[in-house]
Structure formats: C-alpha cells, structure tokens
Amino acid sequence: MSQLEQRLAELRFIEGVEKVEHVRFPTGDQFWVRFNNQLDMQKLQQIVRGRGYRLISFGALFSKLPRRLSEVLWDGVTHVIVKEISQWGKITSVFGFEPDGVGKIAVDLHGPYQIFMAMNEAGVQLLYDYLGVRYTPPPPLPKAAPPKPPPPVSKPPALSSAPPAAKPNPAAAPKPTMPAQPPPQKPTS
After folding, report:
1. What is the pLDDT of residue 177?
2. Angle, CA of 103, 137 and 24, to the nearest 5°
C-alpha cells in the first residue's frame, strides 16, 4: 500500500471527517480533508504556532459579498497557514492576493463544511497534529543510480596470438624503384 493510499484510509474513518481527497493541480498535488463540523480554530492556532507557522485571515472582503457573486470571485479560502509574512502581505491577503503557504482553511461554498487543504508535507503534518493522529513521514525517494560509464574502446583483437612483429625502420629499408614510363608520343597528323 502506498503512503498516499494509507493516509486516505486512516483519515477517512476519523470522527468529524466527511471526505478525504488527493487533488492534483498543475502547480502541485494537494491533500484535502472536508470536515462535517466546525474546526476548533483555537486548537489549530496553538498547533500552528507550536510548529513555527502563522494562521492568517484571507479573503475577508470576498466573504462579505452576496453569495452568488462571491462564488464567482472567491474559492472559499478563509485562512492560510504560512511560515513568514510581511505586514504588506497581510494587507494584500484581505483583498484576495493569496500568500504561499503550507495549508489553507476553506468553506465549502455549496454546503456547511470546512475544508483543510494541505499544500505539502508540512501541511499534512499540521493536519495530523490537529486530528491527533500519529504522523509518519513519507519514505525517502530512492536515489537515482549514477549513469553507467561508457564501455572502454578497445582495439580489434589480433588475428594470431603471436607477438607483434617489429616495425621496419624506414631509413634502413631500400627505396622501391619506380618502373620507367615510356616517353610521350607525338601526335601524328
């Protein structure tokens, strides 16, 4: 059983969990858990702070819009879990500019459910801490084998097993004589 299948199975039957999904996006895979009751935000805040992250509000302006309009403009994210954020980042997050984080809390716009979206392994670990489930890190990726060196280039085998003959010395060898060529003939007219 793969690590992902194991996580889906072990979280699916925890009290309060409605649905567990592995969602694939072009920007990266996410792990979503939809709850059938409200999250304990104080408990989540303590866990997030204990791990050195911050839970910031997001999309407060969009949540004030009428529901039909907010569904068009807003994906339901109410909080983002980030490692560090500047004051400017906090201000822009109110207007819908989402900071990069390890997790998100969203409301299901078509129901009363809240969704925890883990963006990476740090987000998954925070989710497990919140649920009180023992977190097991994924196994390390197997190391890629180093590329094989090209086979050595070898000379073609000798035809006989006798030792190679000594090379002749060009200065000591007699010069070959060229056969004499007949004199050119004159054309007759």
Report:
1. 62
2. 45
Q: Which residues of 37-58 are buried (b: 16+ CB within 10 A; e: fewer)?
A: eebeeeebeebbeeeebbbbeb
- Could you tell me the pTM of the whole model? 0.65
Tokens representing 63 are 């949540």
CA 32 distance to own-chain centroid: 18
Domain extent, residue 97, equals 3-131
Q: Would you say residue 53 lies in a domain?
A: yes
Q: Is residue 79 part of a domain?
A: yes
Cβ–Cβ under 8 Å, residues 81 and 53: yes
Dihedral angle sign, alpha carbons of residues 10, 11, 14, 20: negative
Residue 120 lies in a domain: yes
Query: Which tokens belong to 127?
Result: 């989710």
Work out how many domains the chain is built from and give that number. Answer: 1
Q: Which residues of the chain have pLDDT under 70?
A: 1-3, 59-74, 86, 90-97, 141-142, 144-146, 155-189
What pLDDT is stored for residue 1 in this prediction?
A: 46
